[in-house]
Amino acid sequence: MIGKGKKERTIPVFDDVKETLFTYRQALNERTELSPFDTEPLFYSIKEYYRTGEKKRLSYTTLYRTIKSAVYKVKGNESISPHWFRHTFITNSLANDVPLAVVKQVVGHSSIATTNVYLEKLQEDTVYDAFRKSGYR
Fold first, then answer.
1. CA nearest 9: which of 82, 86, 68?
2. Is the Cβ–Cβ distance between 63 and 80 less than 8 Å?
3. Based on CB atoms within 10 Å of each CB, which residue in 5, 29, 72, 98 is the most buried?
4. Of 61, 23, 65, 62, the residue nearest 46 (C-alpha)
5. Distance (Å, whole) CA 9 – CA 3
């Protein structure tokens, strides 16, 4: 995958996710095999595809509007954005003991210090929660 700054990203895709992606592609009547070197957009504007026959990647604006619309429909947290998913992924990975260096590599941070900010915030929240649960006010 090519990410921000045209950096190449490697994303681990587990078997249950692969199955969901295959089902998604089958629903669109497309090929069902995915290659680690596949650069074709997984999600694209179907309206644009039918109009031009070209699979253009969703723009950040389109993705943002889609997420905001879905959140609004389920009356969820209005602060959720596409970038929120990135923050959540990083935080959950570190909370589940994925090594800092591995998270840094997967999310494409150029400095481990950037990834470490998430770990420090997570540790700070953990300490706060422990004291709060113990009855300290």
1. 86
2. no
3. 98
4. 62
5. 6
Beta-carbon contacts of residue 57 (< 8 Å; ≥ 6 apart): 41, 43, 44
DSSP track, 58-120? PPHHHHHHHHHHHHHHTT--TT--HHHHHHHHHHHHHHTT--HHHHHHHHT-SSHHHHHHHHH
What pTM was computed for the model? 0.68
pLDDT > 70 fraction of the chain, expressed in percent and rounded? 88
Phi, psi of 28 (to 5 degrees): -90, 10
Q: Interior CA angle at 80 toward 88 and 126, to 5°?
A: 40
Measure the CA–CA gap between 66 and 62, rounded to whole angstroms.
Answer: 6
Q: Which two tokens stand for residue 52?
A: 């031009």
**Are residues 34 and 18 in contact, defined by beta-carbon separation less than 8 angstroms?**
yes
pLDDT digits (tens, 9 = 90+) for 28-56: 766 556 565 666 777 888 788 888 888 88
Nearest by Cα to 68 from 56, 55, 83: 83
